[in-house]
Amino acid sequence: MALSPAPASSAASGPASGPGTPSTTARPGDLPAVHDAIICVALPALAVCAEHGQLTGHGLEGVYLAGRRLLSRCVLRIAGREPVPLRGRPAAADRAVFTGVLRTAADSGPDPGLTVERTRGADGTERIVLRSSAARPVRLPVEIALATDLADLGAVAAGLPGPELTPSVHGTGLRWTAADGRYAAVTADPPPMDALAAAGLLRWEIELEPGDTRGIELRVRGGDRASRLPGPGPSGAGRPGGQVFAEARAEGDDPRLGDLLRVALDDLRALLQRDAAQSSDVHLAAGVPWRCGPVTAEGLWAARMALPLGTRLAAATLRALARTQLDGPGIESGRIPGPLRDAGPHLPPRCTGVEATLAFPTVLAEARRWGLPEQDLDELLPAAERCLRWLRAAADPSGLVPDPGPAGPWRAETQAHAHRAAVLGADLLDACDRPGGEDLRDWARVQRARFREEFWLDDPSGGRPVAARAPGGRSWPLLGGWAAHLLDTGLLGGGRYAPGLLDKAATEQLARLLGTPPLDSGWGLRSLGGKEPGHNPFGHRSGAVRVHETAVAVAGLATAGYEKEAASLLRGLVDAAEAFGYRLPEMYAGEQRTAGAVPVPHPAACRPAAVAAAAGVHLLTVLAGIRPDVPGGTIALQPVRSAPLGAVRLSGLRVAGGPFAVRVSRLGLGMVEEAPEGLQLGV
After folding, report:
1. pLDDT in tens, 616-652
2. pLDDT class for 36, splitting at 50, 70, 90?
3. φ and ψ at residue 112, rounded to 5 degrees
4. What is the pTM of this model?
5. Would strands 73-78 and 68-71 be described as parallel, antiparallel, or unpaired?
6. In which region does residue 363 sit, left (phi positive, over 0), alpha (psi from -120 to 50) or beta (all else)?
7. Cα 76-82-84 angle, rounded to 5 deg
8. Mean pLDDT of the chain, nearest integer
């Protein structure tokens, strides 16, 4: 199930359809709006519902398994009428509850005597409960209209679903079979009194005494003739990964932190999916509903930010990427392949494979600091070495890494990823008694010097970095959220952070710029400054707030000691999370915050998204300043001294596979409450 969003070069195109929206009004590249939909996720299962709870088949509505729509319509009528919808809400990442009411013949006044509650899971399992408050017994005809087209998610999103299939009566429900052998089936408990295949109807006659409750349960299954693959079980049964994440909790002066972490964990678990090449390994889907395919750079960045929850996800994600690594002779040997992705209106597309290749050694090195088991390290180290060899082969003689190809351009963000990979990779090679560490450090020193010559523009205000340069000399002097990666240096031993590409003066200037209104929208960091040419608050790389970049900026600023700027971005992101019900989209409009306003979702954003969910974990770790060095036997704390969100306590984290808990006071003082044996508090 993989559909790229409109900004991606592989975006599906075609008209979107929905209630009251003729398909002819859509433009190529449009995607149906889902930001106001209730999305239940337990990959590979997915349900997209409107707030009223009925599945009408409009737009993207339906129940999906592995990218195929198993059910497009599920319309409930009682006594010939649809219940009046009152509320629809997510109950968990994989479950939603819809409440409605209906007046019956036994109701003499305006008050409804029947309450209808529907609980729908991501897998399509639905429990319908009827509760009577009528003054006398009622007999109610209940019917459910069902349909499906067994269409692919990409086709549905492009406004090109297939025709509804004709069902047949099957067991206690209905079954649909497509020409390619795929099928979907719905069974009901209790069995219906009548099943009309031609109309796709299941019917019951239900008698309710005053105060009585009756329930109907529907189950959706799907697969193909060859495998007879069933759909997932209820409430996450058979979900991949086991105990991938720790049961972490947050509490403190700001109660929102607990909600942020709780929803983040729920979403991360919902986004787990098995690797196609090795079912015992799991990784995070980049986001729902558009990017639920193979492991991506976003999945790796999310695994990095989720390291405080344990190292199992990072190890499995790295193994999945290592299996795709290019082998053999040639300059491409060691690179992890990945598609090109649109980089906005100002720069050519970038290569997600280059990003993943440079992230690989960084994540492995930091996972080791958090306590990655030796057997995982030994298995993954050769792949990291191949990534580092590719880095040296791809860099030009002056020390810069082009992206996407040898012709460039040179992107500042790519240089930051490459420098971090070299410094942390050298540290990793030395620790594992492997050659090449000193050579990588020498290369990083050359790259730092070249970067400061080529990527910094001096001006009377103190200067600023440029986004990219072409080998021919052209530069893109556009300041945006990408600059946050220049502050992300990576964790070394003893609680130390690696040197960055910028010197002290440039770091101070960049911190000041990140804290100004053109970049700090009040809800987070804009991907392009508000005063830059071509700024668009809905531009995915030209003005929208990207949660990953904002979280990286908060961590980098706090680490460098610029707590005022870090605290402003942190508060904005937490406020935005509250406005989105703590399920942050990967990006939202970079409009300037005003009194009483709320952040506006981006129409093509994934929600939930792996990097957005993991950012909640990352921000809390930054607040506490947790810096583990399990190989060195220490763990250091450097909390944000200003305690921008008051006192906070984190428990249930994992360091070296054991439980870890920390408390930070309102004065910014940290205290370890629980830690694995053998770890000492470092400085």
Report:
1. 999 999 999 999 999 999 999 999 999 999 999 999 9
2. confident
3. -75, 140
4. 0.91
5. unpaired
6. alpha
7. 120
8. 91
**Cα end-to-end distance, the chain, whole Å:** 46
Residue whose token pair is 């990408």: 482
Interaxial angle between packed helices 610-624 and 297-305, expressed in degrees from 0 to 180 and rounded to the nearest 10 = 30
SS (H, E, C) 23-82: HHHCCCCCCCCCCCCEEEEECCEEEEECCCCCEECCCCCEEEECCEEEECEEEEEECCEC
User: What is the C-alpha to C-alpha distance for residues 445 and 14, in angstroms, rounded to an integer?
Assistant: 49
Q: Is 59 left (phi over 0), alpha (psi -120 to 50) or beta?
A: left
Give whole-number Cα distances, 277 to 201, 324, 336, in Å.
40, 10, 15
- Candidates 321, 315, 299; CA nearest to 374 is 315
* pLDDT reading at 25 higher than 60: no
Beta carbons within 10 angstroms of residue 605's beta carbon: 24
Q: Are 412 and 480 in contact (CB under 8 A)?
A: no
Other C-beta atoms within 10 Å of 106: how many?
17
Strand, coil or helix: 90 = strand
pLDDT at 15 over 80: no
Instruction: Report which of 78, 77, 96, 79 is spatially closest to residue 87, judged by C-alpha positions.
Output: 96
Q: How far apart are CA 508 and CA 514, in angstroms?
A: 10
In this structure, what are the phi and psi dihedrals at residue 146, rounded to the nearest 5 degrees?
Answer: -120, 145
Q: Tell me the two tokens of residue 586.
A: 């990967």
E strands in 265-325: 272-274, 282-284
Looking at residue 130, its amino acid is L
| CA torsion angle 416 421 423 424 (round to 10) | 130
Instruction: Output b/e per residue, 409-438; b: 16+ Cβ within 10 A.
Output: bbbbbbbbbbbbbbbbbbbbbbbeeeebbe
Check pLDDT > 70 for residue 228.
no
Where are the extended beta strands (E) located within 107-200?
114-121, 126-132, 138-147, 168-170, 173-177, 182-189, 194-196
Distance CA 407, CA 356 (A): 19
What are residue 661's phi and psi, to 5 degrees? Answer: -140, 140
More confident residue, 104 or 441: 441
**For residue 79, what are the contacts with CB-CB under 8 A and spacing of at least 6?**
102, 104, 105, 140, 141
